[in-house]
Hints:
Layout: E1 6-17, E2 20-31, E3 35-39, H1 46-53, E4 61-66, E5 69-70, H2 76-81, E6 84-86, H3 99-102, H4 127-142, H5 158-171, E7 176-180, H6 188-203, E8 207-211, H7 215-221, E9 225-229, E10 232-237, H8 239-243, H9 246-252
Parallel strand pairs: 3-8, 3-9, 6-7, 7-8
Antiparallel strand pairs: 1-2, 1-4, 4-5, 9-10
Bound molecules: adenosine-5'-diphosphate and magnesium ion (MG).
Amino acid sequence: LDKENVVLEVDGLVKTFGGLVATDDASFEVERGTITGLIGPNGAGKSTLFNLISGFYEEDEGSVRVNGVDVTDDTPHEIADHGLIRTFQTPRKLEGMTVREAMLVGPQTQTGESFVSLFTDGSTVHEEERANLEDAQRILEEFEIGHLATQAATDLSGGQMKLVELARAMLAEPEVLLLDEPVAGVNPTLANKLRDQIARLNEQGVTFLIIEHDMEFIMNLADPIVVLDRGSVLVEGTPDAVRADNRVIDAYLGG
Length: 255
Ligand code: ADP
Ligand code: MG
């Protein structure tokens, strides 16, 4: 692999919780411009890996590089500044906010930290905040959900919320976007929308690393696929190669 084309380098990541080894010397690279799939049985360590890469967990061992820069000890915000953004498996609670306001809650935080003072009335919104609101509206329209902008965020369906999460992550103008189970619990129509949006953004140059349980979805969207099992990379390759690999079948059967 040509290192110039590597946007994310995960090298020997180890993370233990008490006696439990969640990631065990996990190493792989994500090539710029790809949609890379990260799959593996329940408990394989996929979400832990995302938390390590994006700076939410501190690793016991190993390193992470974004565009060749070592970000191992960086905070989530610093990592975001290097162009790496992630979404969460479970969307956050966004009580009392419209969808457009919820868009301005920083994608790198679970605590509701915001780019905008959410509780000011329209007349006191600063110029910069107004610009952010305009960006948010533009992105919602690109996602064909502009009509949802003034709805209460809590009124959205799970699937709509996932679309908003993706739209919101785009506000940070990521170079590489990590999505944790983007279509979990999403109906087929919205899942197709999500797929189309991911493909559109990828064509615009965004690199994706996607954890997904829905095999049809990920095998049709991603290439290559990285298979994680018991905390380490078991196999990586094209969807066809991964599908046909007996080690992968065994891992899923709990071998
Ligand atoms: P996956 O996303 O592949 O289903 P996870 O990364 O969520 O797997 O979990 C891997 C293992 O690490 C599991 O056994 C899980 O229970 C454990 N684990 C994950 N996060 C924590 C945590 N914060 N504290 C303790 N154990 C955890
Ligand atoms: Mg998970």
